[in-house]
């Protein structure tokens, strides 16, 4: 039998606040998808647009700017190359999301199995 985790009212409120803060940064349709693509090694704008199905160039550009402001992505311009190469790289801070992404992906796979197995 699974042990039930109980939080005090104070801890519950702190958890809610912390999750709200995380969702503020990572929420929306695209941000987490972009972070996943970045930490998976997709760094060029067109590559990101290709791997993230359905995102427009304008939306991707805006979302990358937001991720930069929140310290999760860094825009790197390699002006010494011809043509100039622009890449977006995940910051060390973004790398801290790897375990969160792995746990969320694991839960998502289990959930999909659960709802499609007709138990």
From TrEMBL:
Residues 12-116 form the HTH hxlR-type domain. InterPro entries: HTH_HxlR (IPR002577), WH-like_DNA-bd_sf (IPR036388), WH_DNA-bd_sf (IPR036390). It holds the Pfam family HxlR. Keywords: DNA-binding, Transcription, Transcription regulation. The keyword DNA-binding applies. The keyword Protease does not apply. GO terms for molecular function: DNA binding. This is HxlR family transcriptional regulator. It comes from Sphingobacterium siyangense.
């Amino acid at each position: 039998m699974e042990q039930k985790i109980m939080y005090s009212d104070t801890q519950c409120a702190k958890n809610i606040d912390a999750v709200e803060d995380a969702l503020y940064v990572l929420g929306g349709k695209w941000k987490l998808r972009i972070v996943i693509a970045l930490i998976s090694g997709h760094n060029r704008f067109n590559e990101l647009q290709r791997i993230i199905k359905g995102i427009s160039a304008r939306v991707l550009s805006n979302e990358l700017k937001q991720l930069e402001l929140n310290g999760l992505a860094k825009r790197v311009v390699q002006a010494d190359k011809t043509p100039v190469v622009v890449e977006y790289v995940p910051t060390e801070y973004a790398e801290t999301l790897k375990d969160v992404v792995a746990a969320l992906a694991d839960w998502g796979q289990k959930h999909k199995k659960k709802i499609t197995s007709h138990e």
